[in-house]
Write the structure tokens for this entry.
Amino acid sequence: MSRLKNNSCQVGKIVVFCCNYTTSVSTDTLREAGLIPENLDVKKLPCTGRIEVSALLDAFEQGAEAVFVAGCRSDECHNLSGSRRAEKRVGYTKRLLEELDIDPDRVEMFFVHRGETQPIVDAVREMTTRIAKLGQLHSI
Amino acid sequence: MIIAEQKPLDEILEMISGVERLLVLGCRGCVAVCSAGGDKEVGALASALRLGRKKAGKPIEIDEETYVRQCDPEYLEPLEEDGKRYDAVLSMACGVGVNFIADRCPGINVLPALNTTFYGANLSSGEWAEMCAGCGACVLHLTGGLCPVARCAKSLSNGPCGGSVGGRCEINKDVPCIWHQICEKLTSRKQHQLLREIVPIRDWRPSGHGGPRRRIREDLLP
């Protein structure tokens, strides 16, 4: 597993809403290992099906440059359809961002195999690349 | 219930362009049930508007509140005073709520966040369909409970127009021909004699064409 380059920490804040079951390894451990950047704010949920559109928008309002949801693969959701519900809410949020003339790529849904760390790290890397390309959303 | 949907964000942002203090006011009646104007939608819209205004370099102060109903005077009472603290109140109720606030709270600049669309039923999570037109002269006893006013594209009273194909309406193949369904239902229930009854030309006055409607029940008046 490769470490994130140091300069990724200089990119804006990324917020991830994470299913409790998908990330069994603590984010502190990942951060200490240099696998996720300092600017990543991890919010754990009992299930990503709990995520609300307002929470995703609120994360942007609070200064996030990108937001993503990491839920169980659709055939592995502890609550059967939680991650599929989350995917739909992410889709709705994308539409609202488009209406606000904000690039919908700033929010994304990732399906993650339970207990695996690499997909989370890959998702962080993907979102870091996106915001580096898209530029700053928040000028203040 | 009354079905509504949120207006496009750019339309709402245009509406509140000069507003610095805004109250987004939801309703826990019909619009909460049809996921257009309840607590969750109030939170999402307020967040989106704050984000949109921040992005435009014109931050806005927004409070969020949801009333039990916006179409009953007792629930609107606090708004008469509380609403004065805002440049505008963005109502997430149906048009009834917006009108009622405008009537009851004349000092408040009330704006609509929703388009009120129809009277409908919840087919499944996230899907609603029109079932009643509120025409004021119900004929459902003649049509097997299926409304030709709301569910026929031409609101025909005496059978299908002849344009349907395979039981589907000519305006869109996804729309069932309600007269096809009425005929099938009455026939299966051996009530097909009802189809022979010629319904006279409809009097549209009770449907609102005679002006705004009002209902009074004397025994309940104060």
Notes: The domain at 6-134 of chain A is CATH 3.40.50.960 (Rossmann fold).
